[in-house]
Amino acid sequence: MVAVLALGACAAWRWNAIRVADAQAVAAERLRVEALEQRMDALRRDQRAQTARLQQAEATNRLLREELIGLGQRAALLDETVQKLADPATDAGQSLRLDEVELLLAQGQQRLLLSGDLDGARRAYALAAQLLDGIVDHARLDLRQALAQERAALDALGEDPGVAAARRLDAFAAALPALPQRSAPAAGEAAWWDRLLSRLVQVRPSGEAQALAPDERVAGLAALQLELALARAAIERRDVQAWRAALARADEWVLRLWPESAGRAARRGDLRALQAHPLSPQVPALGSTLGQLRRLRQA
């Protein structure tokens, strides 16, 4: 019995010792884990601090690099200025003449494109050629040749397309009153009762929807004149879309105001031809001399 109690006491002591040792091991592991976590936190803080310092150093380097680039550009500009001052061929008088040539070429181009002033454009280009001939520089030979070709293209132009379009539009408007207001009856085809009833009843195709009433006709003629005025305004602005739209609406009024006839077909053909008529002169070489001069001055 004593041996059994001793054996039980020994087993209880051993189990207690094992439990205490396990608890101590768990506590030690917990302490090690906490220490590792503290070291990890410290490493993260150090990493964030290093990242901030690297970003600050990168920003400083970028600023220094931009300052160095700016210093290099300023030095290049100073070098170029010194070279220009040392070059006797690029004096102030020549630069002023080139400025005048560029201004005249730009004015001639804008006169032709915006207002269709062909004579003004020719005068501006002639003055530019005189100024360019006064510059003694063999490097400007290609520029003189380009200007001569552009002047030849301007001289080869005929009448201003806008003026021609306005004249043809006036001729169209002048020919409208001569159109017959009623369809011509076919001779020998209508019976006597048709001719008698035609004085009381008039039959016309419903698709044309002609304005035969006096008030409608007066309003239609006023609307047609308004469309022709809008077409003339489009010529002044060189607005091709507004020009074609006004002529298309005028064609609709021609259909409503006059019956079918050879004259009406001719006037509608005139309108279609006017819609295809250009409003601005077509000069493929226009602006080539100005572009070449600007490239030479930039180079």
Automatic annotation (TrEMBL):
Keywords: Coiled coil, Methyltransferase, Transferase
EC number(s) on file: 2.1.1.107
Coiled coil: 26-74
Enzyme class: transferase
Biological process annotations from GO: methylation
GO molecular function terms attached to this record: uroporphyrin-III C-methyltransferase activity
PANTHER family registered for this protein in UniProt: PROTEIN HEMX
Protein name: Uroporphyrinogen-III C-methyltransferase
Organism of provenance: Luteimonas composti
